[in-house]
Write a structure and sequence with these properties.
- With 892 residues, the chain is mostly helical.
- It contains 40 helices and 13 strands.
- The chain has six domains: 162 residues, Winged helix-like DNA-binding domain superfamily/Winged helix DNA-binding domain (Arc Repressor Mutant, subunit A); 144 residues, Rossmann fold; 71 residues, no CATH class; 74 residues, Arc Repressor Mutant, subunit A, CATH 1.10.10.10; 192 residues, Tetratricopeptide repeat domain (Serine Threonine Protein Phosphatase 5, Tetratricopeptide repeat, Alpha Horseshoe), CATH 1.25.40.10; 54 residues, no CATH class.
- Helix 15 links the parallel strand 9 and strand 10.
């Protein structure tokens, strides 16, 4: 059977026409034929037939139309889940045959291209979809008519390159009249007139074009038309010479969405641009899409070569072979051509001089691979794709580099919804999450549009990257990644496999050096080699990361490692993370000491904010390390990870993370059975729960801690102090007071001065709550003195806040303000945005009492913003109450 849409909608069976019936039925056939071989959902069909005005019981009416079509077209119109399909080869539909012919013509030589385009245009029998009305039909007609115009214009280009002129004048005259703003048509018409001996008419047409563009668009003709105008003025003899310029571009990608930023970057092109990224990231598709959209800017032709830099079956194409291929395409005779490769490269540069050509050098192995193919001047443009970064091109040739990343969510969603228009948005989001926006993965999925997207999501969950395998290597993600892997050195391959088992989303050099068991300089060299292959990305902070799908492939590859190699490497990196965290934790609080030894890897000379920034960067890896240690039964590591993260979690207000860490820590301590570790773990768990507003649970753990600490005076003091503070927070200060009093003497006797500071502050806070200010003040002043002597800014700010509270209650607002602002200055210096939000609230209270309401509101609003930033919703209510008291109606 054959189907025609390029004119009246028709069908033929065995060469005989089929009676299709009225226009609506023909519209159904056209809507199915346009997506021949693919399921068209019922809703989409209804939109194409009726648009925004479907009839009553449209679904039944549609089923009736389809039923009648099935009767006259037996065996080809079929019902599928959710829709219908015209189950035929796409080539039986003239629209698709037209597209195939024009795509083949794009890479064919002159005579063959002319034949293909002539055959394609002969398929048209008039206006597309004749006799069908509606918005969809009109829109489709416009799209097809533009394709027809493009094909006709391409054919005129080919015929002009073959030397024709006079025979094209009438055809081009009509086309130029129908499309007065189309500069490409205008240039063709001018050249045909010039070749027909009507140069004056060609120049007159240029004047008319210029006037029309100025009036309609306020613009002058583009560079190509202007150059042609000048060449006609000087009677350039080259315009009369038949010339078949090379047009070697492969067909453009059939499915392409997004990449608007990258396309724009290519448009503002440098003479040489390298598009780099891992296999399957869409480098070739991007370059070909841009090249086809801009090919008219290169009237002297387009050259293309696949250098096979990462071919699984062949060695990379030698540069000298590619040079010879380009010389052949440019018509340079082989007679007298030099045999030396360097001389041939020089001849290529001479041949390209002053030409306006586009060179696409696909799949380059490295910078040296493409250097002999580069033109010497700036009139040509060169696009290079590679899986390796090509710094040599930038250094020696000023090349600009575009690094392709995965598609952003909105572009990935656009691609999937185009192929799965009825898919549940949640399924679309899940597939995007599972593929991470990897273009080849999404393209493979789009090619399976005969399946439900939910089924594909299930396959991805069950099989991971193997679900994206296929018989065709070029459309198989595991195969494409394997080609990149084959190009690695032995050391790079080992590093790639070890990185797959490292905990966390990324890794920095210090931890990676331990993982690889290499000195940092050697590790950096290996990792940077991996980054140049694009299997690993290196960010601006020097951290290395794999795309999730690449990591899945690397995990498969890691099976070549022995169990001992994997376990030893994991143990090295886990202990490295623990030691690094201990070193930076000592910067945050040099007075903290764990109950068991945690050997630190000394941190460089960093400030308190820099130590916090280190934890910010490594937090995900440290949590992942703790999880990995727990899964391996490394109980001695698990509680230590919870401990070294404690100060950071408190400083940044990461209460939920701290609770989860200590849940693992308590479980690990119970497995170890060490009473000192058990007491500490329950104490820290109790403190974390209390911070998470789970006070009763917290008190239970603290009482367990007290039981485990029995006989250990120092640990008992730690637990008493924790109990005193938690009870104080709960306004149970009568219960808190004896615990606070018990802790202080032990710290003094044991010489634990840093702990003594905390005990003094806690005792002072409890006494203040009980209204015993005179008794509290000496403790707070002693705490402030000791804090400054010991260089403990956290304790200092706590003492200042409590002394400010004393002054505020006594009515000495100026002194209170001085103390609160001094405490805030200390906290700001530590970059502790979570903890100084409370200072802002207290300063706001004093400002209100001093009559500075606007300033009070500003401070409370800033405090509220910081509290919400750290997701502590329960702490927002006191601030909202204050704001509502002066500004009723304040929204939560």
């Amino acid at each position: 059977m054959e189907f025609g849409l390029l004119g009246e909608v028709v069908a033929h069976a065995g060469g005989e026409p089929v009676a299709l019936g009225p226009a609506r039925r023909r519209c159904v056939l056209a809507a199915l034929a346009l997506d021949a071989g693919q399921v068209v959902p019922s809703g989409v069909l209804a939109d194409r037939i009726w648009g925004d005005h479907p009839p009553y019981r449209a679904k039944l009416t549609l089923a009736s139309y389809v039923s009648r079509l099935r009767a006259v077209l037996p065996g080809v119109v079929k019902q599928r889940s959710g829709g219908y399909v015209l189950d035929v080869e796409r080539s039986t539909v003239d629209v698709h045959r037209f597209g195939e012919l024009t795509a083949r013509a794009a890479g064919a030589p002159g005579e063959a291209a002319a034949e293909l385009l002539t055959e394609a245009l002969a398929l048209w029998r008039g206006q597309a979809l004749t006799g069908i009305g509606g918005a969809w039909a009109e829109h489709t007609r416009e799209l097809l008519e533009r394709q027809r115009l493009t094909a006709a214009t391409d054919l005129a280009d080919v015929r002009l390159r073959l030397g024709e002129g006079a025979g094209l004048v009438d055809e081009l005259a009509h086309r130029a009249q129908a499309h007065p703003l189309d500069e490409r048509v205008a240039a063709q018409y001018m050249l045909a007139l010039h070749r027909a001996g009507r140069s004056a008419d060609a120049l007159e047409h240029h004047r008319g074009l210029r006037a029309t563009l100025a009036e309609e668009l306020g613009a002058d003709p583009g560079q190509a038309v202007s150059d042609l105008h000048q060449r006609i003025l000087r009677d350039d003899p080259a315009l009369l010479v038949a010339k078949d310029v090379p047009r070697q571009l492969p067909a453009p990608p059939a499915t392409f969405v997004g990449r608007t930023g990258e396309l724009a970057a290519l448009t503002g092109r440098a003479p040489v641009t390298a598009v780099v990224g891992p296999g399957g990231m869409g480098k070739t598709w991007l370059v070909l899409r841009w090249a086809h959209e801009h090919q008219r800017e290169f009237p002297d032709g387009q050259l293309h070569v696949d250098l096979r830099g990462f071919s699984p079956e062949e060695t990379p194409m030698p540069s000298a072979v590619a040079v010879r291929g380009f010389l052949d395409a440019l018509g340079v005779s082989s007679e007298g051509r030099p045999t030396d490769p360097h001389a041939q490269a020089a001849l290529l540069r001479s041949t390209l001089a002053d030409k306006r050509m586009l060179l696409v050098l696909d799949n380059a192995a490295d910078s040296e691979h493409v250097t002999p193919l580069l033109p010497g001047g700036t009139t040509c443009a060169v696009l290079v794709t590679s899986r390796r970064h090509l710094p040599g091109l930038a250094t020696a040739h000023g090349a600009r580099q575009i690094v392709l990343e995965p598609l952003p969510d909105h572009e990935a969603r656009e691609l999937l919804t185009a192929r799965f228009p009825t898919a549940d948005p949640a399924e679309v989001a899940e597939v995007i999450g599972l593929t991470g926006g990897f273009p080849l993965a999404l393209g493979i999925i789009a090619g399976r549009s005969h399946l439900r997207l939910g089924v594909i999501a299930h396959e991805l969950r069950a099989s991971g990257i193997e679900a994206l395998d296929s018989d065709e290597a070029s459309a198989s993600l595991p195969a494409v990644l394997s080609w990149s892997h084959q190009a690695l050195t032995g050391e790079e391959s080992r590093a790639f496999e070890l990185l797959a088992i490292a905990p966390g989303p990324d890794i920095a050099l210090p931890a990676a050096a331990h993982l690889l068991d290499r000195a940092p300089v050697a590790a950096a060299k290996t990792l940077d080699g991996l980054a140049r292959t694009s299997l690993v990305a290196k960010d601006s902070h020097g951290r290395y990361r794999m795309h999730d799908l690449v990591r899945q492939y690397a995990i498969e590859r890691a099976r070549v490692l022995t169990a001992d190699e994997r376990e030893t490497a994991l143990d090295r990196v886990l202990r490295a993370y623990l030691g690094l965290a201990r070193g930076y934790d000592q910067v945050l609080d040099p007075h903290r000491t764990p109950p068991g030894e945690i050997p630190p890897i000394p941190a460089p000379a960093v400030t308190h904010p820099e130590a916090l920034a280190w934890f910010d960067a490594e937090h995900g890896c440290l949590l992942a390390s703790a999880r990995t240690a727990a899964a391996r039964g490394g109980h001695d590591l698990v509680w230590r990870f919870a401990w070294v993260l404690g100060s950071y979690h408190w400083r940044r207000g990461k209460v939920d993370d701290d609770v989860l860490s200590w849940q693992r820590g308590v479980a690990a301590a119970e497995q170890l059975g060490d009473r000192a570790v058990l007491a500490m773990a329950h104490q820290m768990m109790g403190t974390s729960l209390a911070k998470a507003h789970r006070s009763e649970e917290g008190l239970t753990h603290l009482r367990h801690a007290l039981g485990h600490a029995a006989g250990d005076r120092l640990r008992e003091s730690h637990v008493h102090l924790a109990l005193a503070w938690r009870l104080h927070i709960l306004h149970r200060d009568e219960e808190a007071l004896p615990h606070a009093r018990q802790a202080l003497p032990a710290y003094r006797e044991l010489g634990r001065r840093s702990n003594e500071v905390h005990a003094l502050n806690t005792l002072g806070a409890v006494l203040l709550r009980l209204g015993r200010d005179e008794e509290a003040v000496p403790h707070l002043r002693e705490s402030l003195r000791l804090s400054r002597e010991l260089g403990s800014p956290i304790s200092e700010s706590g003492s200042l806040n409590l002394l400010g509270e004393v002054a505020q209650r006594a009515g000495d607002l100026r002194t209170a303000l001085e103390h609160f602002e001094a405490a805030l200055a200390v906290r700001r210096g530590l970059d502790e945005t979570y903890s100084f939000s409370h200072n802002l609230m207290m300063i706001g209270d004093v400002k209100l009492a001093l009559g500075e309401q606007d300033e009070a509101v500003r401070l409370w609003e800033e405090s509220l913003r910081l509290t919400k930033l750290h997701n502590h919703e329960k702490d927002t209510e006191p601030l909202l109450e204050r704001l509502r008291s002066v500004r009723p109606g304040t929204a939560p």
